Amino acid sequence: MYIGIDVGTSTVKAAAFDSDGRELAVEARPVALALHGGHVEQDMEEVYAAVVGVLDALTARIAEPVELAGLTGQGDGVWLVDAAGRPVRPAASWMDGRAHELLDQWLADGTFETVFRRTGSAMFPGCPGPLLAWFDRYEPAALDAAATALYCKDMVFRRLTGAPATTDVSDASMPFLDPRTRTYDNRVVELLGLTHRRGLLAPIGDPIATAEAREGLPPGTRLANGPYDLPSCALGAGVTAPGDGLLIVGTCLASLVATTDLDLKGEPAGLYISTDRPGHWLRAMPAMVGTAALDWVLTTTGVGHEEVDALLAETPPGANGVRVLPYFAPSGERAPFVEPRLRAELTGVCLESTKADLVRATCEGIGFAARHCLQAAGLTGSLAVCGGGTRSPAWMRLLADVLGRPLRVVEGEVGARGAVLAAAERFGAALDAAAWTEPTAVVEPDAARAAYYANLYEDHLARLAQARDRTRA
């Protein structure tokens, strides 16, 4: 048995696989997000307890010995811990918006662009640079009490194993890592006013560094602290060849394209995620909101998730003129552009508009945002898709039409699967990656609908440009 652990933003999961990559069982626990005044935080003890809980439940269900385990989880944010790995304060989530004024300042004075040109990272309010600078200015006692500013999976790994506090090159990619040297860029640290806090940055561990679990898994289980959830999903979906891409239709709408070309001259947006293979990156455009936008619309209209497919069938492409710009995050948008104050817009609604129109317009808007991100990331090859959105066949057909290309649908716990594959490579275990990442379906676009959506996409871009202009006014 092989176990993958995925510490998500709202759900912690552990999945068991056999040696051929078949998913044997999954255990999941919800974890809470505390939202107040633009601050989005998580209780680290609750998150860690959920990890131990899902592992205890999973290993109790399956009697097979555990060959190895891999760990992944949400990226960005700031998870401050003391020398023993214990929380100093609640974690600031990647969804946090408290640092938007600092980011506005850096956008205006050129710091934002300078950092991108050096690291390939377009900062957003919920990434460690702005958050650490905010804490340094407004809550310095928390930084004084901390030994390390970790990322989510690193906090869990530290607690599960007792290993020294480290991170990997994928999590370190935003925003301090020089992607060429794979070390922290001290000039970037200086530009963000954090030189005196340099010691808080987690040491970047050797990609093959592993440890033995102390709880939640059988004693002595080999556990690898793998890449964070975006690159883990790319591994789990088989996206490793340059030009191939992955769309994650989850809480975050993430577009990733594998590349060996490091181009820091384009529009500052997204980031280059370093991988375990030097000279190989993922060009990432992780838009802030994916399924969370649809969740908000469903909750507001009193519609259940099980009704989505039927509602999509009730209204035609174009949603009878209803349009949604799906920028619902409190911290604005970060890909394929950065606008901390951008907000969602719903237009074209009249008394004749239906819930089905609102749902379809939201799904279409998310699709247009994905198309924008994938184009900016340089997609030229095949496209895989994973995440909670794949559970809706109607939405997958709509996405194929909006994107105008076939979708390799990879279902199940793709991030956990990728964490296992990363662990297997680090431990030298022989697993057939092609078999592990075989798509469950391929959804082809309808030519007529794809042509219709190509025109509607241009309208989406025009409306987005107007909204960005209003944001800056």
TrEMBL record:
Pfam families: FGGY_C, FGGY_N
GO biological process terms, semicolon-separated: carbohydrate metabolic process
Domain of life, source organism: Bacteria
Domain Carbohydrate kinase FGGY C-terminal: start-end pairs: 269-424
A GO MF label: kinase activity
Keywords annotated in UniProt: Kinase, Transferase
Coiled-coil spans in chain: none
Carbohydrate kinase FGGY N-terminal domain location: 1-200
Family: Belongs to the FGGY kinase family.
Listed name of the protein: Carbohydrate kinase
Organism lineage string: Bacteria, Bacillati, Actinomycetota, Actinomycetes, Kitasatosporales
